[in-house]
Amino acid sequence: MEQFNNAPDISQQATTVGKKEGDIQVFKKNGVPSAYMWKTIDHKWEYVGEVVDPNAGQGGGNVGMVEKPKFYPGDAMFEEGEYDHVFDVELGDNVMRKLPFNNGGNALLAAEKFCVRESLGRANIEQIRSFVTQHSQPFETRQIKEKKELVQSNEVDNTMRTHLFYDAVKIDGPKKKILEFNAAASFMDDKELKHFESLCEVLASKEKFFLTKINDYHNALLTKLIQLPVDKVFPCLDLYRIFLTHPDATVHSKKFEEGANHLYSLLSPLSDKQAGDPAKMLACRCICNLFKEQTSIFVLREKRKVVVDALAPHLQNPKSTVRESAITTLLNFSIIFLMKDDHDGRMQVLEALCPLANKEKDEQCLKRLETAVKNLVYKDYQAKKMADDAGFKM
Questions:
Q1: Closest CA to 89 of 61, 110, 58
Q2: Are 237 and 266 in contact (CB under 8 A)?
Q3: 328, 366 in Cβ contact below 8 A?
Q4: What is the spatial distance between Cα 1 and Cα 280, in angstroms, rounded to a whole number?
Q5: Would you put residue 64 in left (φ > 0), alpha (ψ -120 to 50) or beta?
Q6: What are the phi and psi torsion angles at 47 (to 5°)?
Q7: What separation, in Å, do the N-terminal and C-terminal C-alpha atoms of the chain show?
Q8: Which residue of 142, 154, 377, 393 has the lowest C-beta tally within 10 Å?
Q9: Which of 295, 292, 366 is nearest to 335 (CA)?
Q10: Residues 6 or more apart whose Cβ sits within 8 Å of residue 103
Q11: Where along the chain do its domains lie?
Q12: Beta-strand runs (E) in the chain
């Protein structure tokens, strides 16, 4: 086995340190190459097994001898060529499906590609990965002469990585409407009205945001306003949307529990059947603006499933402004997944967007929809297949 001619002798094992837990290293003992796995906790090499010659034939060889490579004709997920194993996988329907794999390969990637090819749910991946790992060697047992699998890193990057926000500042409209509602319902007392006036002064000029301060009274009032009944909340949401573009908006999500509570207040109009389109649109735009700060992004990541589930029904709202706001929020999620991968998140967002394939006609909505999908399918086999099946043309 020429690939192990330069393997270190077993005498060097005591002075050789593994790079990470599970690292595989071959040492020669009496001229015979054997594989060892590095155990970080014990700080030592653990014997795995003797490396055997795959071309030694079937008779009288080493225990655990690997068979000669098998030819696989190739398919949409796996390239044509010789593999150390071509496993038969049966899914309960008495049909054997082929899964090619090379010793020392990426079992998780192979399992993911198999599930994509067979249209299996992601819940099956771990079971298949475990099977492949148990029935193969954790190290290469031959030199792979065939073409390497397509490396995902070679994929052309057409993604968008800049968040979009609704940051126009027009304070007079929401201020007037809030005061009108308050005159009828008196949800602010005289003291709160004074704080409301000073809050509106602070938020009136975007250019002066870095010279102004959102104080504790303002924060408490904003929290109260976004919890008003659904028929009165829409101008308060518009005010809160503007507030979220102010540098001091981080105070509403510095503590996770408080950030989550504010998020739930914003989600409330999306699940209330009595909420009008303005409230739904502005709730989406507020959530979209939460992507402006890292503290609120953390809350969004942790509550991603709840947020996406709440947004999904509004992706097909008759009003294009509501659809655009919901799509833009999901676009911002797709950007987060590019920075810190979340496969389950990608699939959930893509599943929500798939019904829009070939149906969205509004130009602005369509552009943001296509951008979000491009982000979601980037370097993700399963996401690409879902998008293709839905009818997206990438």
A1: 110
A2: yes
A3: no
A4: 67
A5: left
A6: -65, 130
A7: 45
A8: 154
A9: 292
A10: 66, 84, 85, 136, 137, 138, 139, 140, 141, 142
A11: 2-50, 70-150, 172-390
A12: 24-29, 32-39, 44-50, 70-72, 81-83, 85-90, 96-101
Low-confidence stretches of the chain (pLDDT < 70) are 1-5, 21-23, 48-67, 92, 143-154, 394
> What tokens were used for 143?
């030199």
Q: How many residues does the chain have?
A: 394
DSSP-derived 3-state class of residue 313: helix
What CATH fold (topology level) applies to the domain 70-150?
A: Ubiquitin-like (UB roll) (3.10.20)
Q: Which of 40, 33, 2, 1 is nearest to 18 (CA)?
A: 40
**Residue reference for tokens 């690997």:** 66
CA distance 317 to 378: 27
In the chain, pLDDT over 90 holds for what percent of residues?
56
Q: Are 240 and 226 in contact (CB under 8 A)?
A: yes
The CATH number of the structural domain formed by 172-390 is: 1.25.10.10
Q: Is 392 exposed, middle or buried (0-12, 13-18, 19+ CB in 10 A)?
A: buried
How far is it, in rounded angstroms, from Cα 390 to Cα 386? Answer: 6
61-94 pLDDT, tens digit each? 333 444 678 888 888 788 888 898 998 887 767 7
Q: List the structure tokens of 81.
A: 């060529």
Q: Is 92 helix (H, G, I), strand (E, B) or coil?
A: coil
- Amino acid letter, 215: N
* Cβ neighbours around 259 below 10 Å, total: 24
Residue with tokens 């038969």: 88
pLDDT at 379: 87
- The span from the CA of 279 to the CA of 269, in Å, is 6
φ, ψ of residue 60 to 5 degrees: the values are: 60, 20
SS3 (DSSP) at 54: coil
Q: How far is CA 189 from the centre of its chain?
A: 45
Give the position of tokens 């399992």. Answer: 111
Please choose, from the candidates 320, 321, 262, the residue with its C-alpha nearest in 3D space to the C-alpha of residue 290: 262
